[in-house]
Specification:
The chain is α/β, with parallel strands linked by helices. It is built from 4 helices and 6 strands; from the N terminus they run E-H-E-E-H-E-H-E-E-H. The protein has helices at residues 14-28, 69-76, 97-108, 126-139, and strands at residues 3-8, 32-37, 51-55, 84-91, 112-113, 118-121. Strand 3 (51-55), helix 2 and strand 4 form a beta-alpha-beta unit. Helix 1 (14-28) packs across helix 4.
Length: 140
C-alpha cells in the first residue's frame, strides 16, 4: 500500500479544505493518507512516505507563507530528487505566479510531479475539490 503525506498550511481554511480532498483521493485509490500541518512535518520525515502533497496558499506578493511553511519546505528540498509529489493551494489575488514558481523550484530539485498543481481562487468549488481528489489519486 502506498503511503502519502499531505502537508499544508492554511490561514483561512481554504487550503485545509483542499488538503482534505487530496487526502480523500489518496484513500479512495487505496493508499494511506497522513494529513499534517506544516508545523508538524520536517525533512526527516520525507523518507517515511512514498509520496508527499504540499499545500500552501499564495501570500504577500505571490509567495509561500514565510513563517511556517516556507522554512519547512526549504528544509525538504534536498529530499525532493526522485520523490513523487503534488502541489496545491488557494489564492485571493494575482494569477497563480506563486504556484508556477513553486512548481519550477520542485522540478529543478528533481521532484517527480504526479499531476499538474491544483489552484483555486478563495474556497474550493466542486471542480477544485474534484481536481484535489484526482491529485491525491495520482500520488498512489
Amino acid at each position: 500500500m502506498s503511503k502519502a503525506a499531505v502537508v499544508y498550511w492554511s490561514g483561512t481554511g481554504n487550503t485545509e479544505a483542499m488538503a482534505s480532498a487530496v487526502s480523500e483521493g489518496i484513500k479512495e485509490k487505496g493508499g494511506e493518507a497522513v494529513l499534517l500541518s506544516a508545523a508538524d512535518f520536517s525533512a526527516s520525515m520525507m523518507d517515511d512516505y512514498d509520496a508527499v502533497a504540499f499545500g500552501c496558499p499564495s501570500m504577500g506578493v505571490e509567495e509561500l507563507e514565510e513563517s511556517e511553511f516556507a522554512p519547512m519546505f526549504e528544509s525538504c528540498e534536498a529530499k525532493l530528487s526522485g520523490k513523487k509529489i503534488g502541489l496545491f493551494g488557494s489564492y485571493g489575488w494575482g494569477d497563480g505566479e506563486w504556484m508556477r514558481n513553486w512548481e519550477e523550484t520542485c522540478k529543478s530539485d528533481g521532484a517527480v510531479l504526479a499531476a499538474d498543481p491544483v489552484i483555486c481562487n478563495d474556497a474550493p468549488d466542486d471542480d477544485a475539490v474534484s481536481a484535489c481528489k484526482a491529485l491525491g489519486a495520482a500520488l498512489v
